[in-house]
Amino acid sequence: MSFLSAAFLWGLPLLAVPVAIHLLSRRRQEVVKWGAMQFLMDSSIRRRKIWRWDDLILMMLRTLAVLGIVLAMARPLWLGAGSGRGAGRDVIFVWDVSLSMEREYDGERTSFDALLEKSRELMDQLGPSDSIRGLVTIGRGKWLTPESLPATTEQKRQLLAELQKIGVTQTSADWLTCLGTALRVTPPRSATARLIVVISDGQAQGWRQQDQAAWQNISRLIDESRIPTAIELDNVIGTSAASHNLAVDKLSTARQLLGIGETFLVEAEIHNYGDDSIQRVTVNWRLDDKSLGQSHVGPIGPGQSRQVVLKQTTSRAGIGQLQCRIDVPDDLKSDNERTLIVETIDQVPILLVDDSTESDPLKTDKGYLLAALGQDPGGEDSAKTSSVFRVTTITPQELVTQSLSRFRSVVFANTPNVDEAAVEKLTDFVRQGGGLWLALGDRTQPANFNQTFYRSGGGLCPWPINESAGDLDRREEFLAIHPPEKDHPATILLSDTQRLDVDRVKVFQRFPFATAPTASKVPVLLQSGTGEALAIEGFWGRGRVFIQALPMGVRWSNLPLTQAFVPLVHEWLWYLIQPTAISRNLLPGDTLQVSLPGNEHVREVQLNRPQGTPLILTNFSQGDRAITQSRETELPGPYEAVLRIEGKEDETQAYYVARTAEESNLAQWPAELTAKWNATSGFRLNPASSLAMPAGTQGDSLGDPLWSSLLVMVVLAFLAELWLVRFIAAKRFGVRSDSGGLQTATDRLFGRILGARGNH
Amino acid sequence: MAVSTEQKSFLNTAALSRIGNLELLSTRVVDGILSGKHRSTFLGGSFEFANHRAYTAGDEIRLIDWKVYARRDRYYIRQFEETTSLQGLMVLDCSGSMEFGLSTVSKLDYSRAACACLSRLMLRQRDAVGLALVGQKVESYLPPKGYPRHLQAILQSLEKTKSKGETRLGPNLFDLMRRLKRRGMLLLFTDGLGDWDATADGLKQARLRGHEVLVFHVMAPEELTFRFNRFSRFECLERAGLKLDLDPPTVRDLYLKNLNDFLSKVQTNCTSMGADYLLLSTDQDLGDALSYYLNRRASRAKH
Known about the structure:
The structure holds two protein chains of two kinds. Chain A is of the alpha/beta class. Chain A folds into five domains: 2-79 and 706-753, no CATH class; 89-241 and 668-702, von Willebrand factor, type A domain (Rossmann fold, 3-Layer(aba) Sandwich); 246-346, Immunoglobulins (Immunoglobulin-like, Sandwich), CATH 2.60.40; 348-576, 3-Layer(aba) Sandwich (Rossmann fold), CATH 3.40.50.880; 585-657, Sandwich (Immunoglobulin-like), CATH 2.60.40. Chain A is built from 14 helices and 38 strands. In chain A, β27 and β28 (543-548) form a beta hairpin. In chain A, α3 packs antiparallel against α13 (707-733), α4 (111-123) runs antiparallel to α5 (153-166) and α13 packs across α14 (742-753). The radius of gyration of chain A is 42 Å and the shape is elongated. The model of chain A is unreliable at 80-86 and 735-758 (pLDDT under 50). The longest helix of chain B has 25 residues, at 248-272. The two termini of chain B are 30 Å apart. Chain B has a six-stranded mixed sheet, with helices on both faces. In chain B, strands 1-2 form a two-stranded antiparallel sheet. Chain B folds into two domains: 2-40 and 84-302, Rossmann fold (3-Layer(aba) Sandwich), CATH 3.40.50; 48-80, no CATH class. Chain B has ten helices and ten strands. Mean pLDDT of chain B is 78; it is low at 1-12 and 35-47. Chains A and B meet through β2, α2 and α13 of A and β8, β9 and α9 of B.
C-alpha cells in the first residue's frame, strides 16, 4: 500500500471527531430527580443501563466515513498479490531496427528474430498494472504508440505487430538520441518506476563512445527523472562472433547533373568489414533495369577498401537509378548494394549578357565563349549546336526586363556597368541557386564595379578590384597561370597539366583583386605564378559567383587560344549550375526538395517512402520557383515524388536516401563501452533479473488505485448511518412512516444527525 | 363558555400556585366551580330529614312543623338525621417522591392546591374539615373544625408543607384514625409510591371505622408516560444515593408495564374496600378534577 498524496494522511486525527462526539454525547446525560424509582428497579431494566449499541454503531459508521474520505484524498494504491516484482512500472522498449539486425548468425535466424523472441519473453513478465510503450531506432526515435498504455495482452500483441510491420530498416541507430527521446517523455501518473529496455544486437555502431557530452546528458536525464529510472540493455546475440561482411560503402559521381551524351565516371568503394581477406569481388552495374556489365576488384584485406570506377555515357535525358551490387555470401546482405540517382538533362539554358557590336566574332569576347560552348560564334542561330548548353544573348539594358527563372547561369563576357535594378535581379537569381560568371574586361569600370558588385563586402563579389594592371602593348610582359589544385571541383580537370595547357596561358592585362581585410577565406580558382588571384569564387544564398579578372576574348590574354579554354568553360558552367539541380541523392534527415513545373498547375505532390503511408506535400513558392519539400527522410531507401498535374499524367521523380556506411560494421561492443555502461548509475547490461525495479523505488511498487472503492465505502457508510438514524428515531420517538408523522420524523431525524437532541 | 372561563381560571391558579398564595387560589377555584352550578342542589348533604316526633315540653318552638299541625292539629317536632356538619380530614402525603414535577407543578404543590380548594369548599358548606401532613410521622395535624376562620389555619399549614424522604403513610393512617372521634370523610392525597400495601391497610382500617375514604392518586405526566429520550441519570427523591444511568427509550415499555400494574393494583384495592379512587395528573386542570369528583359524589348521594 502506498499513497500518491500522503500529505492528506495528516487528516487522520479527524477520526477522533466522531469518537469525541460520541463520548461528549454520553457525558451530556441529564440528571432527573425521580420519584417513581420503584418501577425502574426491575432487574431487566438495570441490565440495559450500560450500553447503547445504536450510538456505538453510529460512531463507528461516522468514523468509517471520515476514514474513507481521508484515505480517498490520500489516493492509496493497492499492491496486488503476486506483484512483488513491481507493478506500476512504466516500461519503454527501445527496439533496434537498424540494418545490422538483418544479420544472420544462426542459420536462417536473424538478429531481428531473436529481438522479437526476447521482446515476447520480457512482455510476459508485465501485467496490466504496468504500462508499456515502444520506440524504434528510426531517426531520433519513432514511437509506435502515442502514449504509454496498460500492458494488457492486447496491447502487447499490437506493439509486436507494429514492430513486425516495420521490420528491419536500412537505418543506423543513433542510440544516445533515441534514449534521450525515451527519457524525456513524461511517465504516466501512476507509474512508480521507469524501465527503458534496449533490445539490440550489441553492435558498437551508434553508441558514440567518445561523445562524453551526450553520455553525460543521458546520465543527467536519468538523475532528473521524476521517478526512479533504469536503462536495461539486452543483447540478443550475446557474443562477439567473427563477422563476414563486405559492403558497398560509397557510390558517387562528380556532378549531380549530367548532359546528354556526356561521359561521366561513377566511383564505388567496396569495404571489407569482415575478419577474413576477400580475394576477388565481382561488381555488377545496372542502370535502371539494364545491366551495364561487371567489374572485378580484389583482393580486399580485413578493414580495407577498394575503389571501382565505372565510365558511362548518358544516352537519354531523364532520371536513372544506377545500382552497384556485389555478390558475396556474407552475414549482412542488404549492404551489398548501393543506388545512385543520375539525372541527365538535354539542355542547359545559359544567359549571356554582352552588347558588343563588333562584326568579327573573333574580336569579341562572347564569340570565343560561344565557340567554346559549340555554338555559332556570331550568336545568330543558337539551335545550331552540338552542346547541351543553350545560350541566349541579351544586352545589359535588356537584363532588367529579362526573366531569369528559366536560366541556370548568367555569364558576362565583358562586364559593363550595370544599373541597380539589374544587380538586384542578379542577386535574387544567385540567392536561389543560379550561377553567375563575371568576366571583367575593357568595358569594366572598377569604381562602378566595386559599387554595384562589391558593395563594401556586402555584394556578390567578395573582393573589390583595382585599376587594370598590365600593358597590352608590351606583350612580352605577362603573367603565367599557375596550375590549379585538385581540391576544388571546378579545377580538377584543369589541374591535369599533362592533358591541358593551362600553364601556358599568358595574361597581359587584368584587374588585380584588392584583398578585403574583413573578407573570409575566398576560394581562388586561378592564380598567377606570383600568387595574384585571377579568378575567385563568391557565394550568395544557394548560388555561386565566379569573378574572372580578365575577359573571355584574346585581347588581354591568350586563354581562349589554349586547349584548356573549352574544358574550363564547360567545367565552370557545370559547377555554377549545380545548385540549381535538385539533390536526388540524400542522406538520412536531409531535406527532400521537389521542383514543380512553373507553367502547370500541380494539384498534389505525394511522397512515397520506403515504409509508412505516403505523405502529401505542401506546395509553396521560393522566389519565382514553385517547390515543395519534406524532411521525412529518416529511413534510407528509394523515395518517389508523384506530381499530379492538372490535365496531364502523373509525373514521377526519383530520390534515394543512402544508408550510413558505418552500419555495415558489425563489430560488437568493445570492453570500454561495457565498462562505461557498468560504471554509469541506472544502467544494466544483460541483467540476470530482467525488469527489476530500479534502486530508490519507494516501497515495493504501486498497484491498483483504491480511492474509487473508498469513496463507494464512504457513500455506503453514509447510507448506513442514515438508515440507522432513522431506525433510532423510530425507536425513540415513535416515528411512523405515515404522512402525518413525516414532518416530525424528518425534523427529529435531522435533529438527531446534528446531535441536537432533546430529552422531551 | 364555562370551560374557557375555567381554563383561564386554571391558568391563573397555576401562577398562583407557584407563588404559594393558596387562599387566593382556593377562592378562585371554588368560586369557579360553584359559579357554574345550582347551589341548592348541593347543599342538602348536612340537613337530611329523618322523621317527626310528638312535641314535648322543653322543645324549641321553632322546630314545630306547622304544616303537620295544620293537618293533624297536634304539635310535631321535625327531626334530622345529622344535625351537625360533615367532618372531613384531608391527609397529604409529604414524601420525597411528591416533590417530582418537570413540565408541571410538583405533585405536592398540586395536592396542596387541591387541599386548599376542598377546604374552602367544605367550609363554605359548613362542614368541618381538618388537615394532616404525613411524612415519616404525622408532621402536622389540624383537627376538623367547621368555622370559617379555620381555613386560615389550614392554608398556613399547607404553605409550610415540605416534602422529605420516605413516608410511612400506612402506620400514620392508623394513628390518625385514633384521633378521629366521629365518623367522617378521609381524603388522601398521595402518589402511592413507597409501601402501598401498608397504606392500603391503613385505608382499610379507616373504612372499618366507618369513614368514607377518597383517594386522590396524584401523578406527574412524565411518570405516566416516561417520555424521556436522552441518556439520563435518574436520582431517587426519597433515598439519597440511589441513582440509575439509563437510556429511557430502551426501558420505556418495561417501565410502563410496571406502572400500569401498580395503578391497577391501587385502583383495585380502593374499589374493593369501598373507597373512591381518582387518578389526578398534575397537568390536569384542578377545577376540572374537583368538579368531576364533586359530580361523582353528588350522583352517589342521590342513590
